[in-house]
Amino acid sequence: MAIESLIPVIEKKEPKMNTLTIEQETNPWEAQAARFDFAAKKLNLDQGIWKVLRYPAREIIVHIPVGMDDGSVEVFTGYRVQHSIARGPAKGGIRYGPDVSLDEVRALASWMTWKCAVVNIPFGGAKGGVICDPKKMSQGELERMTRRYTAELIEFIGPEKDVPAPDMGTDEQTMAWIMDTYSMHMRQTVTAVVTGKPVNIGGSRGRREATGRGVSVVCDQALKHLGMSIEGCRVIVQGFGNVGSNSAKILADKGYTVIGIAEYDGGLYNANGIDVPALIAHRKAAGTIVGFAGAEAADKDELLTYECEILIPAATENVITSLNAAKLRCRILCEGANGPTTTVADDILEDKRIFVIPDILANAGGVTTSYFEWVQDRMGYFWTEAEVNQRLDSIMTESFSDVMAYAKSHSVNNRIAAYMLAIDRVAYTTKQRGMYA
Ligand code: GLU
Q: What is the mean pLDDT of the chain?
């Protein structure tokens, strides 16, 4: 059966798709495919390579039995999609959440290929996910589920094959369990099988903050590019997980004014700037940002439309859609999350001349420091935090200017420029290696 018949092919037309229903508009796989097709067309990509890169190379579905605390057995469905290994081992996080789907994991896997190529690190792209609600599971249940998921994937992952990392719903502890399970099967400790581990078991200094740090570097570069200054630069961040909280903290440290934070359970606004470390301390104590004394309560959805210089969606997909894009009042949209903006919204933002720093560039700091972690694990020699940060800063700065150069030379918006740069790099490698077809 031809692959086209397995995955719905969207029409290859310019991304002006205002006829889509909101369900179609927010399908992450279609969003990825629409941008890919548009960029591939601009590049005049060879038809064969187009077909190869449009679809994932491998999709694994596992059903994971887990002994629950009450003595029952539950079966969870998990995925690992490896989109490409053209430029190196597949690389990408594992997501735990009730809404995880194969289409979402497919899209996220492709985005990892493009992201690694944008920052020019020697990895392909992959993503994993398990349909579960980690907030409702005990640590013991999460550990058993993680270990069995790892065991089911044992022949597909490894330092030279596919290297998972944290994503939404997973963290350093999850990575420690994966590393341990993999190592037990291999009969030796293999730290380089995952990144985003705790620092004392082969993690990298600076990895936890890396995505937020990368976000701050591309914000600095965007201001420079647009002739704006940090002083008086107002920032609103949506999401206060790893990416959102670290972006807010690092930007505030650099002198930006973080005026708004939107979380799933409420929003905060302070025109004079929110004290981010104090908010982090409040959240740690209260379990929520709500009720923080240093800001007034604000509607979490409306916050996205407040006037600011930089808006940072740093949570999940489909936050900026045809329903709210026209209302945005930011100058720069910096995508800390993967896929926060739909294709229809892209067109609206372009009309509004909002400067978009696309996800595959903006949030690539995480996987870049994952690359450093993998390198350090393989060397068995660990860098200082200053070394990690300095290397991260220079890769993010260089990648930002690479994307700007593509946007200029091909007269395309920043998102399409980032896709074109990435596809060009992956296609070049594929051609150079030759195809085993
Ligand atoms: N999950 C993160 C991302 O979407 C990190 C991936 C990694 O470090 O491999 O970029």
A: 95
Domain parsing of the chain, residue ranges = 3-53, 56-189, 210-362
Q: Confirm or reject: Cβ of 110 under 6 Å from ligand 1.
A: no
pLDDT at 2 over 90: no
The pLDDT tens digits for 63-83 are 999 999 999 999 999 999 999
Which atom, in ligand 1's list, is nearest to the CA of 371? 8
CA of 181 to the centre of ligand 1 (A): 20
For residue 367 and ligand 1, the question of a CB distance below 6 A is answered with yes
- How far apart, in Å, are the Cα atoms of 127 and each of 80, 163, 259, 391? 6, 10, 33, 25
Structure tokens at 332: 């720069």
State the catalytic residues.
127
Task: Indicate the length of the chain as a whole number.
Answer: 437
| CATH number assigned to the domain covering 56-189 | 3.40.50.10860
CATH of region 210-362, choose from 3.40.50.720, 3.40.50.150, 3.40.50.1240, 3.20.20.100:
3.40.50.720
Residue of minimum CA distance from atom 9 in ligand 1? 92
C-beta of 93 in contact with ligand 1 (< 6 A): yes
Which residues have C-beta within 8 Å of that of residue 43, sequence separation ≥ 6?
A: 420, 423, 424, 427
CA distance 177 to 144: 9
Pocket of ligand 1 contains residue 366 by CB under 6 Å: yes
**Could you tell me which of 400, 435, 436 has the C-alpha nearest to residue 421?**
400
Give the containing element (helix H, strand E) for 127.
strand 125-131
Mutation to probe ligand 1, out of 213, 316, 367 (largest number of atoms < 8 A from CB): 367
User: Which amino acid is it at 394?
Assistant: S
Of all atoms in ligand 1, which is nearest to the CA of residue 93?
A: 1
**91 pocket-lining for ligand 1 (C-beta < 6 Å):** yes
pLDDT tens column, 129-152: 999 999 999 999 999 999 999 999
56-189 and 210-362, same CATH topology: yes
Among 430, 330, 368, residue whose Cα is nearest residue 51: 430
Cβ atoms of 225 and 199 within 8 Å: the answer is no
* Ligand 1 binding pocket mutation candidate from 94, 104, 108, 112 (most atoms within 8 A of CB): 112
Place of tokens 């660990």: 382
